[in-house]
Amino acid sequence: MASTVDSGTTNLVSYSPVDSRAVAAFAVDDEETVREKVARAREAGSWWRSLGHDGRRAHLLEWRRVMARRLEEVLDLLQRENGKVRADAVVEMTAALAHVDWSARNARSVLARRRVPSGLLMLNHLATLEYRPYGVIGVIGPWNYPVHTPVGSIAYALAAGNTVVFKPSEYTPAIGRWLVDTFEEAVPGRSVLQLSTGHGATGAALCTSGVDKIAFTGSPSTGARVLAACAPSLTPVLLELGGKDAMVVAADADVPAAVEAALWGGCSNAGQSCAGIERVYVADPVYDEFLDLLARRAEEVRARADFGPITMPAQLDVIRRHIQDALARGGRAVVGGPESVQPPYVAGPVILADVPEDSAAVREETFGPVLVVNRVADAAEGVDRANDSDYGLGAAVFARRGAGELAGRMRAGMVSINDVLSFPAVPALPFGGRGRSGFGRIHGADGLREFTVPTARTRKLFDVPLAVSTYARGPRDMARLERLIGWLHSR
Ligand code: NAD
């Protein structure tokens, strides 16, 4: 593809994971360039905020229309620069567009100033609450969902009235540029959303550039570095990090449905999903049936047709190591094995059974089409094992009776019952995890509030006979207040 260089020195080139051919070339933004972009974003902020919720909504919906009109371009780029098969690219764009739409339409009702009860003792005050934008948000994105993931921060931050400087992954800068170009088409000449390309150092520069908040999505180790970089300036951070999501299959589950969900949840996007299924705990009475059917179905799923290559070459070594370690510790390869790792692909799903719980394949993020399927006495034990993880992003439960109770015991930010990965597709639901999976939320009302400062206001409407917060008060006032709170709180 003919590439356009943004500015400055060109030393970032993205390559297709499919055939290693160069896709596009970009400048590497240094600290000064990043600061200039943040300064431009700050200037643009006053115009963007002056539009109010309705004006921003109109622009964001126009952005959504531009993206929809130029869908073919991004589907091609997702295939070429990110290596996705077309179906995975379409799924990603379906969710991303829904989030732009939802955030644009709901920002007013979630964030606009509203009255809250002022309470009996303060009834002479009108109390209102408003969620106001921070100012400039720095968004640092990963490569695995290079549209959907950053849009989960960008659209919500913009809808809340912030401007954004976006640093896409060095593996997917052209997709990042498409996002910013489409926004520029919808909102020309305003620097409301800017692109900053580069490697980790450019992301690090964004953390210390004076932005008002950082929304980071990526690995836990980089997340910790981002947190440390933001600490001296007390810049708030949202961290969307890795996962080791588990599915629990109860004895009364619909086994064929659970098998399909485990296979797709583990292998779609070549297993490179933060909330992809990596562990499956199946109740003893249905374990053999589940594993047999999963093995048969897994044989029918192939790389190239059903999922793409592993985007980051170094990840292939991690995937191979996890498989080898599981086997060395007594696990069984039911489908595939170390030989499935055929760079740049994992040739097909790898199904591992009876894997010791202290193996890398159970404890660490594998980020490949590898499923560990272990036997448990019942679903309750499955939940205990699922929860025994440093991560806590998503989870899935397959059960007929008691599914809600099992879901309620999952230590995760999101749980789907009788399906997988359904929560990111519901824009009204918050997305995020706990523990090593990070903190803060994108999506939904919580995702809008994440990019705002809750601002409280009271307005005194009239005087009351009881003077308390004034030195004009007398002993009788305080004695009356004492009696009043005694009565109020002893009821
Ligand atoms: P990564 O941590 O290697 O990189 C993420 C981004 O951080 C990139 O843009 C990179 O350039 C930048 N970066 C690197 N060093 C930096 C530094 N010192 N300071 C600031 N920025 C820096 O992650 P990745 O490999 O791109 O993404 C995969 C990871 O992301 C997986 O762990 C996956 O689970 C996670 N992820 C999480 C979510 C979620 O919402 N929870 C979504 C998608 C991916």
Which structural class should the secondary elements be placed in? Answer: alpha/beta
Task: Report the CATH superfamily of the largest domain.
Answer: Aldehyde Dehydrogenase, Chain A, domain 1
Q: Please give the radius of gyration in angstroms.
A: 25 Å
The percent range for strand residues is 15-25%
Q: Tell me the number of helical segments per DSSP (H or I, 4 or more residues long).
A: 16
Arrangement of strands in the largest sheet: 12-15-16-11-10-17-18
CATH architecture of the largest domain: 3-Layer(aba) Sandwich
What is the mean predicted local confidence, pLDDT?
A: 96
Distance between the termini: 74 Å
What is the CATH first-level class name of the largest domain? Alpha Beta
Overall tally of domains:
3
**What percent of the residues sit in helical stretches (DSSP H or I)?**
40-55%
Give a brief rundown of this model.
This protein is an alpha/beta fold and 491 residues long. It contains 16 helices and 20 strands.
Descriptive report:
By secondary structure, the protein is α/β, with parallel strands linked by helices. The protein folds into 3 domains: 3-241 and 442-452, 3-Layer(aba) Sandwich (Aldehyde Dehydrogenase, Chain A, domain 1), CATH 3.40.605.10; 245-425, 3-Layer(aba) Sandwich (Aldehyde Dehydrogenase, Chain A, domain 2), CATH 3.40.309.10; 461-489, no CATH class. The chain is built from 16 helices and 20 strands. It has helices at residues 31-50, 52-69, 71-80, 86-111, 148-159, 173-186, 200-207, 220-230, 255-267, 284-299, 313-328, 360-363, 379-387, 403-408, 444-449, 475-489, and strands at residues 10-15, 22-27, 114-116, 125-133, 136-140, 163-167, 193-195, 213-217, 237-240, 245-249, 277-283, 332-335, 341-342, 345-346, 350-353, 370-376, 394-398, 414-417, 438-439, 452-460. The strands form 5 sheets. The chain has a 7-stranded mixed beta sheet with strand order 12-15-16-11-10-17-18, sandwiched between helices. Helix 14 (403-408) links the parallel strand 17 and strand 18. Helix 2 (52-69) packs across helix 6 (173-186). The longest helix is centred in the N-terminal third of the chain and has 26 residues, at 86-111. The site of nicotinamide-adenine-dinucleotide (NAD) has 28 residues, from helix 7 and helix 8.
